[in-house]
Amino acid sequence: MQSNHVVIIGGGYGGIRAMENLAKKDHLTITLIDQNPYHYTQAEVYDFIANKIDMSQVMIDLPSLCNSFRHVQFVCEEVTGIDTATQNISTPTQKIAYDQLIIATGSRTYFPPFIKGLREHTHGVKSIPSALDFKQQFERALLNRIEAQSQGCEVKPFNIVIGGAGLSGVEIAAEMAAYANHFYQNGNFGCRGVDVYLIDAYESILFGMDPFLIQSSHERLVQLGVHVWHNNRISEVRENQIILDNDKTLDFEFMIFTGGIAASTLTQFLGFDTNPKGHLIVDENLNIPNHPNIYAIGDITNAVDENGKFIPPTAQLAERGAEHAVRNICRSLSGKEKLPFRFKNQGVMIALGGEYGAGLLPGGIKIKGYLAYLIKKAIFHFYSSPLRRRSAIGKRR
After folding, report:
1. Which residue of 29, 33, 102, 299 is 20 to 30 Å from 201, comparing CA positions?
2. Is residue 64 in a domain?
3. Running DSSP on this structure, what letter comes out for residue 331?
4. Based on the domain organization, do 275 and 201 belong to the same domain?
5. Which helix (H) or strand (E) holds 155?
6. Which position has the higher pLDDT, 368 or 303?
7. Are 380 and 393 within one domain?
């Protein structure tokens, strides 16, 4: 089998899994490119902003991780272009040649342009800087509120608004409510605490997901005191106030928007076909059409199943896509026909604040409560622990 240089753009869930699998092939050399020197375990961000874990637990050092493999190098730069004719990737300081390319740059928060003021007055949590910024501002606001109580309990309401009730919105709303409840109870503060509002345009939270997950999550949110507003579309966001399409208003201290994602900005200048939100169109083999040596995986793609139905972007989808792209790279280098990608969902686990969760396991097994929480924690442990061990090896080299 011929020697080949495989370049991976993006150190998220898909990029890391692709790198791990490719590194097992002695005939390949691999370069991982990311503009940040760390892998962000975004699926655990709700624990970070609720102070259950610290910042070191949501990031893994990429230079050390790559250094733990014999033929993997890491480049910490932003990709500024891809020349498919010469098979070169451009960064601000160099050009990197590739034989095979995997694009796995993930997604960013999508701020619908028809919602006036949304981008200017809300937080996102899809990056460590934005999550850290929200966490620090939230804690400062809590302190200011406690100090204001010396003047009496007639302080204005402290509202947190979560816009969008998909997986991220539900998990963040639940964890923020659980954290706020614990904060006020643990400190024995006598005045009114924090109110969390989860606002969504659909008729239920987790729209389109299994009814068991919808019901279990809704019951838990109500138990935590979260105000769940269905069928409410946000028409405008002002500084510390939202306006709904029925002209109802709500004042807030902080707002996190999780109502949509768009592909990373890299897709805007590649010249490849995309959908309206910038997601790359891929064929059944996960190739960019007419580019058999370029693959795209994870949130950056317009992922659909064999029936043309949209597949929601998750870490699981990114990892399965990475494994399949690596498989097809090896098959093509061996002169074998590529295989079409068929995604089989291995289950869903949702964190619902405190030590509580809900989930669907393979085989349709339904669980909720403490056991679901433990399983979700175990999944994260089995994902991150091997990476941290390898990173420690790379650091010592």
Report:
1. 299
2. no
3. H
4. no
5. none
6. 368
7. yes
pLDDT range class, residue 216, cuts 50, 70, 90 = very high
Q: Binning pLDDT at 50, 70 and 90, where does residue 1 land?
A: very low
CA distance 229 to 126: 24
* Cβ burial, residue 268 (10 Å; 0-12/13-18/19+): exposed
Provide the residue range defining the domain that includes 83: 4-35+77-109+261-345
Sign of torsion over alpha carbons 38, 387, 373, 205? positive
304-336 pLDDT per residue, tens: 777 777 787 889 999 999 999 999 999 999 999
Which tokens hold the place of 35? Answer: 């503009």
Task: Enter the tokens of residue 219.
Answer: 């019951």
Name the nearest CA neighbour of 260 among 379, 151, 113.
113
Domain total of the chain: 2
pLDDT reported for residue 250: 95
User: Could you tell me the two tokens for 90?
Assistant: 């451009």
Taking a C-beta distance cutoff of 8 angstroms, is the pair 104, 296 a contact?
A: yes
Element housing 132 (H / E): helix 128-148
Instruction: Tally Cβ neighbours within 10 Å of residue 343.
Output: 16
Structure tokens belonging to residue 36 = 């940040």
Residues 235 and 320 in one domain: no
The CATH number of residue 272's host domain is 3.50.50.60
